[in-house]
Amino acid sequence: MSVKTGTSSVVSPANSCGKNSRVLILGLGNVLLKDEGIGVHVAGELQKLALPHYVEVIDGGTASLDALLLARGIEKLVVIDALRADKEAGTIYKARLKTEERDKLEQIFNGYSKISLHQMGLVDALAVAERMNCAPKEIIIIGVEPKEIDYGLELTQQVKQRLAEIVNTVLEEIKDAFHTK
């Protein structure tokens, strides 16, 4: 797992866990399976940018997420992952949820849209964080329709062409995450 935070003088508030609030951008996926690794590829692109100090980018890969979301002052969670909904390859989906709408997250990752086990790991991790009053207040899921999920390290051309747009979608989500004093 790799982590990069930016540098900025923005002050962020404390949340119910008693730590400074942050925005966590979590790129999920398996880079060994072409488009299934889109979240990791997006995280890699974001790690090259100078982001505000309260923004943390994590290449979550296919790791277990339980420990990741606990004991962190996360105000806003942005998750990027492959999400199959039988649309054109590279289609970008976005869902904005409040913590109390976590059941909707289960619906998003249920049935035909579920691609990999780490998506349910995210739902479980959020449930644990919620019970400990440390869940992020806002969860944004950015899903990308894969063209191909098969052995290979590269994204397909259709998904790769949308990479900059996906990065910009994430940047829009964090643009005014916290107001400065």
> Helicity level, as a percent range?
25-40%
Give, in order, the helices and strands. EEHEHEEHHEHH
Radius of gyration: 15 Å
The overall number of domains is 1
* CATH superfamily placement: HybD-like
Query: Largest beta sheet: what is the strand line-up?
Result: 1-3-2-4-6-5
pLDDT averaged residue by residue? 77
Query: Helix/strand/pairing class, anyone?
Result: alpha/beta
Instruction: Give me the CATH fold name.
Output: Rossmann fold
Task: Sum this structure up briefly.
By secondary structure, this protein is an alpha/beta fold. It contains six helices and six strands. It is 28% helix and 22% strand.
Describe this structure in words.
By secondary structure, this protein is α/β, with parallel strands linked by helices. The chain has a single domain (3-174), classed as 3-Layer(aba) Sandwich (Rossmann fold). 28% of the residues lie in helices and 22% in strands. The chain has helices spanning 38-46, 66-69, 102-108, 117-131, 157-160, 163-174, and strands spanning 3-5, 22-28, 55-61, 74-82, 92-98, 138-144. Strands 1-3-2-4-6-5 form a six-stranded mixed beta sheet, with helices on both faces. The N and C termini lie far apart (33 Å).
Write the layout of secondary structure elements.
Blueprint: E1 3-5, E2 22-28, H1 38-46, E3 55-61, H2 66-69, E4 74-82, E5 92-98, H3 102-108, H4 117-131, E6 138-144, H5 157-160, H6 163-174
Descriptive keywords:
single chain; 181 residues; Rossmann fold; 6 helices
